[in-house]
Amino acid sequence: MRPLFSCKNFMNLPAVNRMEKVISCFNKSPEAVARLICFPWAGGGSIHYARWGNVLNCSIEVFAIKLPGRETRVKEPFFENMQQIVDEVVGVLLPVLKEKPFALFGHSFGAFACFAVADALKRLHNLEPVHIFLSGASAPYSETRIKTPKRSELTDDDFLKWLVSIGGTPPELLANPEVLKLFLPALKADLHVVENYRCHKPDIPLFSCPVTCFDGKADIPHDLQAWKSITSGDFTVRMLDGAHFYLKESENEKSILDYITKQVETSEMDYL
């Protein structure tokens, strides 16, 4: 049984320890002029995004979010709602986000976490990203999203069938029952969080920064256009070949990173 998570104990850690607990950063670049904060997909870890720091231009430092229940935090209980994610991420990142411009990226479950954190930063601290990149997800207030079946409530067998259908899960993982026992709880816990996350369509745009939505052409249709309501700035949709985990394919990843680099560097000039 995992020990109960204690917010008090977490906040009592020195700031540098809290940062290392929640953030993976493979290429620390104090001289970077901007940061890219990346949020994992459901059940995912931080490694996929953290290695982007070794690929992106040295002017952009990559922070990849580590959630409880996986990687070095495997003994911690999973978060049960989006507010817990927001509170932890904002609490850890707030001091450094005031230092220099930052952008946010999230895929699928990570897109919702990305949006929720951006919303809190704007409402509570008047901090806004220079760009928000959202991938593989309908806007949380869209009819498409609201009508989506709750996958976290499926039996393990039905859940695995659904997992195979969306692609992106390594066959060796699906064929290894012991590994699956470790993987499924994190995935289901994250889906439970996002399936119970609710927010209203904004009456007025929350942000003025550009927002870009990515998606796989062969993925199930997402209501990407609904995201346009969150910003008064530029809104762009970019469709790439592939299914739900299209961003794992090397050509798509290169295309995404080239685009992010161009957009963030352009935003840096506007910021200055």
TrEMBL record:
The keyword Lipid metabolism applies. Residues 35-263 form the Thioesterase domain. Pfam families: Thioesterase. It catalyses: (9Z)-octadecenoyl-[ACP] + H2O = (9Z)-octadecenoate + holo-[ACP] + H(+). InterPro entries: AB_hydrolase_fold (IPR029058), TEII (IPR012223), Thioesterase (IPR001031). It comes from the Eukaryota. GO terms for molecular function: fatty acyl-[ACP] hydrolase activity. Keywords: Fatty acid biosynthesis, Fatty acid metabolism, Hydrolase, Lipid biosynthesis, Lipid metabolism. Coiled coil: none annotated. GO terms for biological process: medium-chain fatty acid biosynthetic process. Its EC number is 3.1.2.14. PANTHER family: S-ACYL FATTY ACID SYNTHASE THIOESTERASE, MEDIUM CHAIN, THIOESTERASE. Belongs to the thioesterase family. This is S-acyl fatty acid synthase thioesterase, medium chain. It comes from Gasterosteus aculeatus aculeatus.
